[in-house]
Amino acid sequence: MTPPERLRAALGEIPGAVWLDAALAAAAERPESVRRSFPAAGRHAGRKVLPGAPGWTADEAARALLLAALPPDRAATTCELYGDGDPDEKRAVLKALPMLGIGKAALPLLHDAIRTNDARLVAAALGPCARHLDQAAWRQAVLKCVFMGVPLAFVDGLEERADPELGAMLTAFADERGAAGRSTPADAAALSHRLTRKEP
Predict the structure, then answer these.
(1) Residue 150 — φ and ψ, nearest 5°?
(2) DSSP calls for 109-130
(3) DSSP assignment, residue 69?
(4) How does pLDDT run across 152-166, given as a tens digit for each residue?
């Protein structure tokens, strides 16, 4: 199954299933209708966690499906919905990005999310689409995760992109925390050690 199909299957027979099917059909025929249905998804689909889609809630999945139902030139609408959205709506957009195929048009959304103090948005921004971030921006985003207490397991592609410079940044962060009598998260400390250890 494709990602949208998996989300639809995970939603099952939610209370708003009839509404969602109608909203998806309307999105395909009249893309402008998503501007009404997207913010309404929380009310119609509910906000329960979906057992069949780990890490997704019903409203997030419904919103992702609405975005995926838009025509291929969906980037502008996606960016508008993110910009106008509340934190839950913004997070749904960020989580949907990998299935939308809008490429580097997602960069402004990622940069905006990373600048926030909302740990959920920062974590969502570091999903698969974070590959579009340049290395310097990506390192800063990873460091912000550590600062905010976001587990590094949320960072997609961490092992592939982590480099000695990130290790040095994490070491400096740990030194500052230690000087203030505060500990560093175990996952960050372990990553720093791997990246900076000297080979014999």
Answers:
(1) -80, 125
(2) HHHHHHHSS-HHHHHHHTSGGG
(3) T
(4) 999 999 999 999 999
